[in-house]
Every structure is written in structure tokens, then in C-alpha cells.
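WARN retry 2 of 3 for item q-0093 after timeout on previous attempt; input resubmitted unchanged.
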Amino acid sequence: MDRADFAARIDHTVLGPETTLADARRVVGEAAEYGMNACVPPCYVGEVVDDAPDVTVVTVIGFPHGQHDPAVKREEAVAAWDDGADELDVVLNVGRLRGGEDDAVIDELAELVAAVPVPVKVIVEAPLLTDAETRRAGEAAVEADADYLKTGTGFSGPATAADVTLLADYLPVKASGGIGTCAEARAMLEAGAERIGASAGVALVEGFDGAVS
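OK item q-0093 returned
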């Protein structure tokens, strides 16, 4: 894997509650400069998509807790697509899953996936789940015809190689949460991740040493 391939796997991210439009524009600009994707809050998608037409713009839905009404999440997804988002990272309703309401989780995700023609990643919040619950989340995402699984929002704990390996049994995985160095990103990729979500995208690319297999 060369530096360009490595950079293309990174979703350079800014999603904190204090994120400004200037922050979102900066991240998109850095993504363009370094060959990364950009992940920004949905309120800014329509304002930044034209800043760098070649950058894949990712945004989040139902963020950060996933407990929006399903219809609201679906409309948020459609609005983000209308604004120009290329991919959507949707937070699964962890409470429904942990309560054993798997059918409700699947129905919500399936309706959202069907409502947009762009790739949907399901954020499972693995740091909050047992391995058995994480597997059920993976199964739900497959049933809903999602495109990716994402380890977490980053607010509930860091991504782990073990979670990546487990989730990779179901769909391609985006590892997100606490990935601040090239060595940490390398560990996730070697565990089976296809994408990396990180606010430290620039540092990751600048630290690339060609050692990722």
C-alpha cells in the first residue's frame, strides 16, 4: 500500500459540538490536499461540497446517540443526500438493540438505506456492546442492506482491533475513535478495516511509512 492508497482510506473528520463552518471547510481543504475523504456535520454539507469537488464528502445521521425517531433519521439522510453528501454514517439505535428489538433496528435501517442512493455505514457503538450484541448489530446491518459497519462515534470509547475483526465477518469496516497515529491506523487496517475515521487525518498521512500490508 502506497501513501496515496493509505490516504484514500481515511475519512478526515470534524464532528465535535463546537464545529464551525470554518472547521468544516478546513477539513475539506486538507482532505483535498492529502487525498483523503472528509467527514463533516450535516448542517455544513451543502456549504462545503463545492469547495473540493473531487473529495468524497461523508456526513453523519442520527448523531451521536442514534435515538431519533426513525422517520426523522430517514428525512435527515435524504436531506444530506440532497445537499450533496456522497456517503452517510448512520448511528444504530443501541438501546433498541440491547433491549432485544432487533426487528425494529433492522426496519429502521432498511427504510433509511432504501431512501438514499449513496453508501450507508452503520455505526454500531461497539464500545457499548458485548461481542454477542456486536454480532447482532452486524447481522442487522446486513439484513438492512447497508454497505459498511463503523465501530463507533468515538464518543463512547476507542476503536479496537478486536471489534474490527469481529465486524469484518459481516461487512467492510470503518474503524473510528481514538486513532491518532499511523501505527494505530495500521493496526486497524491489519485487523481488517477498509476505512479509518480520524480527526488526525493529516498526521496519519504525514506519518505514513509504507509499512501497512
